[in-house]
Design a protein that fits this description.
The structure is a homodimer. With about 250 residues, the first copy, chain A, is mainly α. Chain A has three domains: about 20-65, Homeodomain-like (Arc Repressor Mutant, subunit A, Orthogonal Bundle); about 70-190, Tetracycline Repressor, domain 2 (Orthogonal Bundle); about 210-245, no CATH class. The first copy, chain A, contains ten helices and two strands; from the N terminus they run H-H-H-H-H-H-H-H-H-E-E-H. In chain A, helix 1 (about 20-40) packs across helix 4 and helix 5 (about 95-110) packs across helix 8. The structure holds a DNA duplex (30 and 30 nucleotides). Chains A, B: InterPro entries: Homeodomain-like_sf (IPR009057), HTH-type_TetR-like_transc_reg (IPR050109), HTH_TetR (IPR001647), Tet_transcr_reg_TetR-rel_C_sf (IPR036271), TetR_SbtR-like_C (IPR049445). Chains A, B: It holds the Pfam family TetR_C_43. Chains A, B: This is HTH tetR-type domain-containing protein. Chains A, B: Keywords: DNA-binding, Transcription, Transcription regulation.
Chain lengths: ~250, ~250
DNA sequence: ATAAAATCGGAACCGGCAACCCGTTTCGAT
DNA sequence: ATCGAAACGGGTTGCCGGTTCCGATTTTAT
């Protein structure tokens, strides 16, 4: 009787489960990993069930939703990354360690669409898992900067963006093109040295230049109180008409 | 009688159409631009019809498929980029022009999901349109390299990847973070100067290191004739089991 | 061995969307 | 003003994929 749809203590799974259930759970997880790795979250759930050799019902017995399954499938990889970063935080040569670590993470992630999507943070891998990775990486970054191996104006936000950018760059290179070219390029961009461009500072909470919501053109910073959203009267009217239509 | 489902001469549309048809076509195109801009190809077609104030049937009268509509909606922007690049090809200061152009393209594309997807080449914007852009950009790159403003080991492939990477990087920055930081970083990585890393050369058509198809670990270059796909016997067996299951 | 409980499997359900179709409306030539 | 053809629009169809449900099956405790 009692609750039937509780199931799935996502963390410690092996305890107190019937033997077949334990086995099936592992099969599902394995199948999910390989399917998600190839197709990302887009992988159909039926396909995962088929690969695991179970019915879709069984999948739902163990994981309350597709997304929960996804989390379970990728989070351990991310945790592994995090742990590694934490260990490396006390290494001797922070600069070299930083670059090697970054390259390794990228190399190990590129081929794994699920991991890419998870790192991109479109959905939390698991509450905290992604955040922990970010913080561990921040430590490596900071130490590399202290060792003067990474330019000081780069923030952890920049680095996370750069990481994802590298993933998307490396990802769309066909076979026959060297893996890692973009990563190498990105690493070079982090190195201190003779620089031509200053990184644009984050806006001082004031207004800054934006894009016209209709035509994409440049909008001059507003002089009046309300934020300027359109590049001119024509686009503003167009937007109003559109909204009116939307309400109707 | 005759062909009813021909419709949509995608290029010169205004000729020989009834006045209401011409107007509706423009409305649909405009609505498509704005919807795709926000949501990319994922924007539902019904939503586009709604915004245009027409029925879905009308959309299909003018464009044979959703993708054709998408092409029509974005290709003119790309053509604009291409034309601009061609004009700039004869500019005096190839280095500065190159960097300015690159930044501008990124700035004008980031907020436009449709344009991003089109440039990423997941589907041709229009046969040739995307290719033309690439070639025009290649000219700018080459001239900048001749002027010693861009490192010589960067190829047009690298640049295209870098462009898309910048897009994906800038895209996922929330408001309150300066636009263009990643672009600036990327531009710096292109500049010649004291470099620490060599870009990995494209593989000499020989084998190179790959990843294990199961666990993602490193696979040593194969010594035998057949390509090594797994990092060890365990993973190989796992893969075989999986395939067997897939067949059944 | 037996029965209760847990688990399994896959058919059925449901929502969302692209694409199609056809009765109705509008245009514009005469 | 009239009429035929062109265009409209939204209801309908087909498909896909996530989720649920329940009868059948397996495990485990006694």
């Amino acid at each position: 009787m009692a609750e039937r749809r509780l199931s799935s203590l996502p963390s410690q799974a092996s305890a107190s489960l019937r033997s077949d259930a334990r086995r099936n759970r592992a099969l599902v997880l394995q199948a999910a990993r390989s399917a998600f790795e190839e197709a990302g979250l887009g992988a159909p759930l039926g396909e995962i069930a088929r690969r695991a050799g179970v019915g879709t019902g069984t999948v739902y017995r163990h994981f309350p939703s597709k997304e929960a399954l996804f989390r379970a499938a990728v989070s351990d990889r991310i945790v592994l990354f995090t742990d590694t970063a934490r260990e490396l935080a006390h290494a001797d040569d922070p600069g070299a360690v930083f670059y090697r670590y970054l390259s390794a993470v990228i190399r190990l992630t590129v081929r794994n669409k699920a991991l890419c999507e998870a790192l991109e943070g479109r959905f939390e891998a698991s509450p905290g898992v992604e955040e922990a990775f970010r913080e561990a990486l921040a430590v490596l970054l900071q130490r590399a900067q202290q060792a003067d191996a990474v330019r000081k104006d780069v923030t952890i936000d920049d680095l996370m963006a750069l990481l994802m950018g590298c993933l998307s760059m490396e990802q769309r290179r066909g076979p026959g093109v060297a893996q890692g070219r973009m990563t190498a390029l990105a690493c070079d961009s982090l190195r201190p040295g003779r620089r031509v461009t200053k990184l644009p500072a984050n806006p001082p909470a004031g207004r800054n230049e934006t894009q016209c919501g209709v035509c994409g053109g440049v909008v001059a910073p507003a002089r009046t109180g309300r934020p300027a959203r359109y590049c001119g009267a024509a686009c503003r009217q167009k937007a109003h008409r559109e909204r009116a239509r939307a309400r109707a």
